[in-house]
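Note to self: keep these together.
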Amino acid sequence: VPESRRGDDQRLDLVGAALVTVGLVGVVFPLIEVPAHGWSALTIVSALLGATALSALVPVEHRQQAPMVPLEVFRSRQFVGANLATLAVYAALSGALFLLALQLQTSLGYSALEAGAALLPITVIMLLLSPRMGAISERIGPRLPMTVGPLVAGAGLVLMARVEPGVGYGGAVLPAVLVFGLGLSLTVAPLTSTVLASVPDSQAGVASGTNNAVARVAGLLAVATLPAAAGIGQRAGSLSDGFDRAMLIAAVLCAVGGAVSALTITTARRVRNQVQPGINHGCAHPCTCLDDAA
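Structure:
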């Protein structure tokens, strides 16, 4: 793959990086601590500090000569929509699989190794189907797979709500895992390519880094908040009692991701100046790509 450069020397945006770090740590720490231990002086100060740092990020990045995240990338509706879909889908993914692994061990008696192996079909399905879905997305555009995929993944999460003490792997766990894996396979490759195609080549690194950060933050927030939202606490049996509610909440998040994709993602596959209409760029067919940032 040929190297691409912005053509100018840039310094690291240490101020922006510091604000993001302080902001996320400050906000996430009380989200984790308060449900278990209640508010304290430390969690209040942490929340205020985090909120202040995140609030200062946008004006600081706007004034930076070489910002960590150039704010102009958010002028692309495609870029914003893909990242909102990422936030919803990856929050559902991380929160649901975190709780499912615990449910399999604490409520169904699986060992840690068995719980991990029970989720292995998701990885296998994605390895087999993601490349094909990327190719299909190139032909038909990303909107349809990014709309249908989260809905299928949400259906898998609804099936996961049936995982309770006494059920068998083949009758309850495996069907849910297979449907969920299929939904992710429909979603992930088109989502990633859409993020990268929504900005010029010179900003591909920024787009990829932003999208990965959104995915990680989504998982972090989901693991911190989903148990509390589902009524899962520290008392014995609360995981089993609230697990089905947590899966349904995660399913709703997936549906939100699909709805966002339907409303914001276009069928065009490239931004203007990244490729030219009518020219074959190594695809299996002549490109007829249009500007999706308009």
